[in-house]
Amino acid sequence: IFHGFRGGKGVATLIGLLLVLWPLLLLPLIAVFALVLTTTGYVGLGSILATAAMLPSLWLFSTQPSREWIVTAVVFGLFVLYTHRANVQRLRAGTENRFEKVRVAEKVVRYKERQLETAQNRYAAGVSTELEVLRAQVDLANTRTTLLQLQGQADLSRAALNAVMLRPIDAPIE
């Protein structure tokens, strides 16, 4: 069923397969996906890492997973990585969409900068207090802090991508 989203059909198929054949295996995969999504905002990266977590998760529920499940985990991992190759390229380039978090934060910083400028102009014209300027400065500083945190999360996502690609975590992304 199409819900207005692009992509996701391969991961949805994997979820359906696991719901029928091994529902408990979904738990760690959903946990990985949710953790990556909430910390980075990247859906594609969440899908890649959750699928990559399928192989080690097999050993959570079976001391000796069957050869078929191991092959299935590897095939799905490679399939999801292949179908998300454009996402990987955008992550490497730093242009992947993140649920608009960074973009929105950048717009809010620009808005807060204009508010500060307005407060300073009003104070200089004698129609406002210094308190208004100080509040605008604090708001701008808090918003910049949020932006820096989001940008830091993007850096963590790039490090996770390097780890998935078996590269040094601090390797530069071209």
Task: Sum up the structure in keywords.
174 residues, mainly alpha
Descriptive report:
It contains eight helices and no strands. The longest helix is centred in the last third of the chain and has 35 residues, at 130-164. The chain is mainly α and 174 residues long. The two termini are 37 Å apart. It has helices at 9-21, 26-40, 43-52, 54-61, 67-83, 85-93, 101-124, 130-164. 25% of the residues are buried.
Structural class: mainly alpha
Share of helical residues: over 70%
Supply Rg: 22 Å
Distance between the termini: 37 Å
Poorly predicted sequence stretches spanning 5 or more consecutive residues: 1-5
Shape: elongated
Strand content: under 5%
Report the total helices: 8
Please give the structural blueprint:
Blueprint: H1 9-21, H2 26-40, H3 43-52, H4 54-61, H5 67-83, H6 85-93, H7 101-124, H8 130-164
Helix pairs in contact: 2-3, 3-5, 7-8
